[in-house]
Amino acid sequence: MSNNPSKTIAVIQITRIGDLIQTYHSVASFKSKHPEHRIVLICRKQFYKPLEQILSKVFDSVYALDNEMLLTQPKVLDEFLSQLQSEKIDVLINLSFSKSSNYLASVVKSQYKIGPYYNRLNQLIVEDKWSQLLYSTTLRGTLNSFNLVDFFRNIIGLKFSPDSDLQRTILSQTNKEKTILIHPFASASRKTWKGEKWVEIIFKLLKDNPQHQIIIVGAKSEHVRAESILQNNILKSNTARINNLVGKTSIPELIQLLGSAALFIGHDSMVSHLTSFTHTPTLTISLGSVRPSETIPYHLNAYSIAPKTKCFPCFPSDNCDYFQCHNDISYQVVSQIAQELLKNKAIDKNWAQNTLTEFQTSSVHLFKNVVCQSGLLAQNILDSYSDSKETLKSIYRLVWSFTLSDLDENAHLPKINHNTQSELISVLSSLQYLFELSGFGKKYSRYILEELTSSQPRLSQIKDFSKKIDEIDSLQKIILKTSPLLAPIIDFSTLRKANLSGDNIVTLTESSYTVFEESENICKIVYELIETIISEHKIQQKKQTSKHSESI
Predict the structure, then answer these.
(1) pLDDT of residue 174
(2) What is the pLDDT of residues 522-533, one digit of tens each?
C-alpha cells in the first residue's frame, strides 16, 4: 500500500466499447499499483452497460451519459455535472480525444486536467506531452506504432510492467473446445469484408478441420448479414457444424465462448478486443481505416493481417468507391495462418517462407504482438525488409520512448532494401532542413528574450523576431507537404508551440525556446538513426557482393 494520500481521478472515455476495453487495461494497471486512489469513469451509457461487470472491477464509480436524455432534456447535463462536482475530482484525464469529450473536459471541475480540453477562449489546450503526441500522431497521420493501451498508460503516468500487465485475464480455460469463433462484421463497410470472402474462409476451415465447429457472433443489427453468409450454397452441406449466435449473446457470454474457443477470427471490433480478457489465439483482418499497430488486441496471442495497399490505412473521411485493400488479402493466406494457429504453433518468418508463396505474401503484412520495454509492439513478421514508412515508425517509437519517458529501449533497427534507402536519403535532406529551422527558432526566441530582459526593450525588434518565427512555422508546413514522413516531428512541435507554458511574455518565450530545442534534438536523433540504418544496409550489400564474387 502506498503512503501517498488518496486522490480522486476521473477518466473520460465516451467513445465506443473497444476504446472502453483499452481504457480498462490501462486503468487496471494503474489501480493494481495505486489501490489507494479512487478512480471514476465518465462514459456513455449505451457502451457502459454491456461492460458493467468488467468495468466495475477497476472503477470505484461510474457516471454514464444518456445521449437521448441529453438531447430531449437539457437539464440532464446540469444534473450530471452537479453529481460529478460532488466527487471533488483531483485529476481529470480525457482519453477520448473527440470534440465532444474535449468540451466535456472543459466543464468538469478538477484541480488538474490531463488530455485535451477547451479554455474560456474556446482554444484547444493539450498540456501533457503524451497527450500531445497522441493528438498529433494518431489523429493526424498513420506513423504511430504504440498500441492505444500503452498510449493511455503513458498519459496516466504509468510505466509498462509485463509481469503484471500481460497476466491479467477475466477468464482463462486450459481445456479448449474444438470451436472457432468468427465475427465477420465491423462498424463500417470500409473495415468489413464482403460476405463472399467469409463464405470461403468458413468453408475452408470446416473442410480442413472436420472435428471443429464454427460459431458466428455479432450484434442483432448484423443478423441479416449473417444469414446472407450462411445461406450461400457452398455452406449448405455443413450447416450442422455452424452455430449462428448473432444477436443472441451478451458480453459475459461472449467472453465465456472466447475462453473455450481454439481460435478467434474477425475484423477490428469490440469482439476482437474481448480476446484480451481470455488470451484466445486471435487473427484480426485489418481493412480500411484500421491501424493494426494501435488497435491489435492487447495480448501475446494476437495476430493481425493487413494489406500493403498504398492508401491503407485511410481516414474515415476519405472517399473510396472501390475498396482495393479488401481484395489484397486473399482467403487462402488467412486460412493457412488460421490452420497454423489451430495447431498452437507460433507463426514466424521461417514458417511463412516455408509455407506461403511469394504471391500470397507480396500483398499483405502480418503483425504479431511482442513485448518491448515500452509495451506491446505489433511486429511485422512476414517481410525481410521494411519500407520507408515502417522504418520511420520504428524510429519514432524509439525516439518518443527516449524523449518522453527517458526509456532507452533495446530494439533491432529495421533492415531495408535499395528502394527504401533512396527514399530515406531524401528524408535525410528534409530532416537536415527541419533541424536548421529549429536552430533558427531557438536563435530568434533567444533574441526576443534578450530584448525583453534589456534595460530598454525595443518593441520593433521584438516584432521583427516574432515575424521570423512565424516564417519558420510556414516553412515547416512546406516541409510537411514535401516530406510527409516527418509529420510526427512537425505536428508534435506545432502542438507544443500552441500550448506553451507560462503566464507572461518572458516565460512563454522561454517555453518557445525549449520547444525548438526539443525539435532540434529529435531531428538529430532521427537523423543519426536513419544514417545508421543506411550504413548497415550498405555493409550488408558489400558482404553480399563479395560472396557473389567469390562464388563466381
Answers:
(1) 56
(2) 999 999 999 999
Say if residue 520 is in the same domain as residue 428.
yes
- C-alpha–C-alpha distance, residues 66 and 71, integer Å: 9
**CA distance linking residue 458 with residue 466, whole number of Å:** 12
| Chain centroid, CA 552 distance in Å | 49
Nearest to 117 by CA among 200, 127, 277, 43: 127
At 368, which CATH number?
3.40.50.2000
| pLDDT of 229 higher than 80 | yes
The reported pTM is 0.93
pLDDT at 2: 47
Say what the pLDDT of residue 21 is: 96
Q: Which residues lie below 8 Å from residue 391, measured CB to CB, with a gap of 6+?
A: 414, 416, 420, 424, 530, 533
Residues 331 and 197 in one domain: yes
Residues 189 and 150 in one domain: no
- The residue segments making up the domain with residue 520 are 418-542
List of residues 6+ apart from 215 with CB closer than 8 A: 179, 180, 181, 182, 242, 243, 245, 257, 261
- Does the structure show a pLDDT above 90 at 274? yes
> Does the residue 137 lie in any domain?
no
Q: Verify that 112 and 193 share a domain, yes or no.
A: no
**Mean local confidence (pLDDT), 79-85:** 89
Q: Cell numbers of 519, please?
A: 525539435
Query: Out of 7-11, 345-349, 439-443, which region has the weakest mean confidence (pLDDT)?
Result: 345-349
Q: Is residue 61 part of a domain?
A: yes
Half-sphere exposure of 332 (CA within 13 A, CB side): 9
Question: How many angstroms separate the first and last alpha carbons of the chain?
Answer: 69
Neighbours of 462 (CB within 10 A): 18
User: In terms of Cα–Cα distance, which of 113, 174, 153 is closest to 22?
Assistant: 153
Residue 298: name the closest of 184, 135, 168, 155 by CA. 168
CA 209, CA 186: separation in Å to the nearest integer?
26
What CA–CA distance (Å, rounded) separates 499 from 354?
52
Looking at residue 9, the DSSP 8-state letter turns out to be E
Angle formed by the axes of helices 388-405 and 505-551, nearest 10°: 140
